[in-house]
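Progress narrative, work stream C.
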Amino acid sequence: MPLEKIIERIGEEFSLEIDKIKKETQDRVSEILKEAKEKAASIKDEILKKASLEGQRRRDRILTTANLEARRIVLEEKERLMEEAYKKALTKLESRGKKSYQDIIKKMLFRVAKSGSGEIIISKEDRKRITPSFIGSINKDLKISKEERGISGGFILKRKKIEINNSFESLLRSKREELEPRLVRILFGR
């Protein structure tokens, strides 16, 4: 199964979580806008009492600033939620059971190392799930490196001086630009 389908399946599994995040975001946005409107209304009343041209200019500046601040807060919240969605997708990949995890790694290895020699660099945590016999069943010329890397899942294929980073973080990062518009639509309905 291609990585895109895995990511898509993970996205579907998170649809309930995404709906929850979307509602929380909408509630937070409404709250921020309500507070901004209340603040703006209060400032407006004060300025109107002074009834001067300077008061009008000041009111406009404050409303603009309040609106810009509200937009900034909403944008920061959206960015935080999108980052959270990526982290949850990564956590979901990392926390799969041994068989499911090995199936993912096997498909990834078939794409980049079905034949030829090399070393597979993995994390310390993956040493129980990715064993020499598992790697040998895919390609007898591949070996697990003694070197470990601080990746959260996946592997790095090393052939001579060339390394191909197939860590989950790297793969998600490379797909992020492509997936971000879809994630924005799912999270925020745009």
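Work stream C, second folded protein:
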Amino acid sequence: MHDGWLISGLSLLPRRTLSRWMGRAAASRLSREAARAWVRLHRIDLSECSIPDGGFPTMDAVFTREPRPGSRPVDGALDAVVSPVDGTCVLVSEVREGTILGLPDPPLDLPSWLGGPVEDGSTVVVLYLSPRDLHHVHAPRAGQVGRVHHRPGDRWPVRPPWSTRSSSPYADNERAVVSLVAGEAQWHVVMIGAFGVGDVRPCVASSSEASPVSVDKGQRLGTFHLGSTVVLIGTRWTPTVTAGEPVRLGARLGTACLAG
């Protein structure tokens, strides 16, 4: 009931405008003291990240902090599909008839949502990033970047259980889609903006036949400025993660079916 009232209240507010203001405030030097309080409130483990001289200058710097070298080793096994983020798995599903099973109605129109085709039977894992997690997004497999598709949109909350009350956070929110080809497999890494997210920023560009863009497994694809959710869609793989389980950047998330 409490969440329902909050969602009803948010429906009356200018969510995109408020989110932009929150992003600007978080990037301001005036947020320095709030950043220190945020670290204490969420018990963020600073031993696993690089801290700028003098501490974090802004709230945004806490969210976009860099992991210490070696603190997020990438599983180098050839068949390893690695987690693109630190976070929590909220759904393991599959694509059927152009939508993701298990999301509330109305169903997503995936080709439109992704900005391109998606293979029926593709496997889906949805990962939620909490306020204490690192907010960079990385490649689950080595491959070539296909299309990078960015679409402005709304800013509904994505934190469970809000995201399970309606598919609007997935269908309507701002998103950036990085599509990868890894051998015979096709991948889509979808970065979904949420209420309070100042920006969703990919850091890779689309490929062309003349100038293909290759990425290594674990290479950075983009960054959330504040928090959100990643939807990972891929072919020819089997997840080893289950809903409710925490995930760690670079650790095995599943197993790829290798050609040959």
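The first strand starts at residue 49 and ends at 50. No further action is required on this item.
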